[in-house]
Amino acid sequence: MSTSQMIEILGRLRKQMNGEVSERMAAHGVEYALNYGVAIHSIREIARDYAPDTKLARLLYSQQVRDLQIAACCIADPSDVAWADEAFWRGGVATGEMAEQLSGLLAKSADVQYYVEGWLSSDDSNVRYCALLTAAKSRSESSARRVAEWVAAKGEISMSEAEIRVVATILSNHYQESRVGEVIHQIKDSNEAIHKRISEELYVFDE
User: Fold this and answer.
1) How far apart are the first and last CA of the chain?
2) Are 119 and 135 in contact (CB under 8 A)?
3) Which pLDDT belongs to residue 206?
4) pLDDT confidence of residue 152
5) What is the dihedral of CA 145, 150, 154, 158, to 10 degrees?
6) Low-confidence stretches of the chain (pLDDT beneath 70)
7) Helix, strand, coil in percent for the chain, rounding step 5
8) 20 in helix, strand or coil?
9) CB of 53 within 8 A of CB of 9?
10) Which of 72, 62, 138 is closest to 103 using CA atoms?
11) Count of CB atoms within 10 A of residue 191's CB?
12) How confident is the model at residue 90, as a pLDDT?
């Protein structure tokens, strides 16, 4: 049944494919093996007709097709997304866009803390970004503390602009939590410019 559903979803996606969008994405370094360029909101509308179905989601996610992988993040049941399968989900985080889409699913998983803890230490910048987004979207204090400790351990704090935005959101949402507050003070003492940027940053997540 899952295979026929995938074929059906592909057919619906093809009707909305946009070559110009996929070309612009590629020009900006966002590359996929295959990209139909369908708008995120349209992919989500299609996905709603099939959710929740983790078996189908895993089939879609395993394809090298950007639009199917995004649909998979909307179709999977968060209760089925366990840390034991982290290698599978990590394998699809090849772009910042996929990090953004997958984080919404991971944030609802019972194993969210494991994903934050495990992926923050990754050498892959997209996987780390996904961990930060997951922590922010989960809004859990334990995830915020882990991110705070990660920031403190970075010393001089070398982060991408995207990472700074997400860290800013997490720290500002949990600044009253003691460990998070300590890190904010550490940042101020070690790098006033970064502290100012984090304090002023506002980041709105696409839930």
Assistant:
1) 29
2) no
3) 53
4) 84
5) -100
6) 28, 155-157, 202-207
7) 70, 0, 30
8) helix
9) no
10) 138
11) 15
12) 98
Taking Cα atoms as reference points, which of 97, 92, 16 lies closest to residue 59? 92
Q: Which residues of 66-100 are buried (b: 16+ CB within 10 A; e: fewer)?
A: bbbbbbbbbbbebeebebeebeebbebbbbbbbbb
DSSP secondary structure letters along 71-135: HHHHHS-GGG--GGGHHHHHTT--SHHHHHHHHHHHTTSTTHHHHHHHHHT-S-HHHHHHHHHHH
Q: How far is CA 147 from CA 40, 119, 134, in A?
A: 28, 11, 11
Q: What is the pTM of this model?
A: 0.90
d(CA 18, CA 132): 30
* pLDDT tens digits for range 25-44: 777 677 788 899 999 999 99
Give the type of residue at 180. V
For 182-194, how does the pLDDT look when each residue is reduced to its tens digit (9 = 90+)? 888 888 888 787 8
